[in-house]
Amino acid sequence: MIPLQAASTQVPLAMPTTPAQTSQQLQLHDIHLPEQVSNLPTAVGWWLLTAIIIICALWLIRKLKTNRAINQSKNLALTVLKQQKTLSNIELISLLKWSAMQYFNRQHVASLYGDAFQRFLQQQLPEKHQQIFKHLTKQAFNEQYHAVSLTEHDDVNKATKNESNVNDDCKSAVKLWLTYALPPKDNTQKKDSQQNIATSKSPTEGVLAHD
Fold it and tell me: Is the pLDDT of residue 3 over 90?
């Protein structure tokens, strides 16, 4: 039998280690946070993309303003057509002439009358709408011709005007022409349109003002 005292001396007791000793043994370092990443793109491609987006936005805004200015007279004529429901055929033709003068050469349009003016309006439409427009405006231009033939008799002329009934066909033709003929597609005619924008007046000023 081995004495208890002798056995106890043979097994060394482990000493507890402190946190400082453990850190020294593992050679731990302090925690370092990563550097903050910048949100600004520094690549040249990003700057080019930003510049392209800005240029496109400015171009789009300018185009919208130009289109609004060009379509101003067209929209005004459509508003008159919608609000004034008692326009006679002669007044509807006057509205067409006013509208045409805002977008085409004014001297040329002002010199047109009767069949020549009807053909001019017809030619500005897409081909599929030309015959429809001619058919719908036939009665209106006939009334205009008869009214002018009585210009030497003011009283008769006024009576003719008052008896001119609202022609639904003519109103449909005016709406058709305003919708599909304006603004003009030809580049030369577009220049005339832009020149006429600054001097355009309301269709109710002079053109539709009948005594």
Answer: no
Query: Measured between alpha carbons, how far is residue 7 from residues 14, 15, 16 in Å?
Result: 16, 19, 22
Sorted by where each begins, the domain ranges of the chain are 73-197
CA pair distance 187, 54, nearest whole angstrom: 28
Which residues have a Cβ under 8 Å from the Cβ of 98 and sit 6 or more positions away? Answer: 77, 203, 207, 208
For residue range 81-98, list pLDDT tens digits in order.
999 988 999 999 999 999
Return the amino acid letter for 44. V
Using alpha carbons, select from 182, 192, 161, 181 the residue that is nearest to residue 92: 161
Phi first, then psi: give them for residue 209, nearest 5 degrees.
-85, 95
> CB atoms < 10 A from the CB of 116, how many?
10
99's CB contacts (< 8 A; 6+ apart) are 73, 74, 77, 177, 178, 182, 203
Q: The tokens 């005292």 sit on which residue?
A: 5
Structure tokens at 135: 């058919």
Q: For residue 109, how many other CB atoms are within 10 A of its CB?
A: 20
What 3-state DSSP class applies to 74? Answer: helix
* Cβ atoms 101, 195 nearer than 8 A: no
